[in-house]
Amino acid sequence: MAPRYITPEGFRRLAEEHERIWTVERPRIVAEVEAAAALGDRSENAEYIYGKRKLRELDRRLRFLSERMDALTVVAPRAVAGGRAFFGAWVTVEHEDGAERTYRLVGPDEFDVARGLISVEAPLGRALLGKREGDVVVVQRPAGAVDVTVVEISWAAPEAP
User: Of 4, 6, 156, 160, which one has the fewest beta carbons inside 10 Å?
Assistant: First the structure.
């Protein structure tokens, strides 16, 4: 199996979610289940049944996060000579309609399009890998091919407007 890469920030977000579930949410649900169980008949106790279901969901998420974190390889992005876009780079592109967007090339476990984080396995991410400023890239999308121009490649997060 090929290694799955993640940035240190992405790994930290997964670890924080795991920690929050383990230390805050799970103990709260366990206390709720214990209180509901103390009320008596569990077969018709909606709070008890819902609490047990919620506890199973949290345990499933904890297991998933633990297995995922064990399988990931944390890669600290660093500038590459030649100004090429690689894993961890911030890439500003101009779309055909003239709109500019900045994306960070990240692993598939941390993509968040709303925050500008795109996976290196996504069509746009794959197309941008190895490109330089000024390159025109053809992105194969389900809706059809589209051209984007690489405007800037940076290794530091863009400043918020």
Answer: 160
Place of tokens 């279901």: 53
Residue 144: CATH number of its domain: 3.10.50.30
User: What does the alpha-carbon distance between residue 151 and residue 136 come to, in Å, rounded to a whole number?
Assistant: 9
* Nearest one of 63, 53, 18 to 32, comparing CA atoms: 53
Helices (H), 5-133: 8-20, 26-37, 46-71, 123-128
pLDDT of residue 1: 62
> In Å, how far from its chain's centre is CA 84?
23
Q: How many domains does the chain have?
A: 2
8 Å CB contact between 102 and 116: yes
Per-residue pLDDT tens over the stretch 117-132: 999 999 999 999 999 9
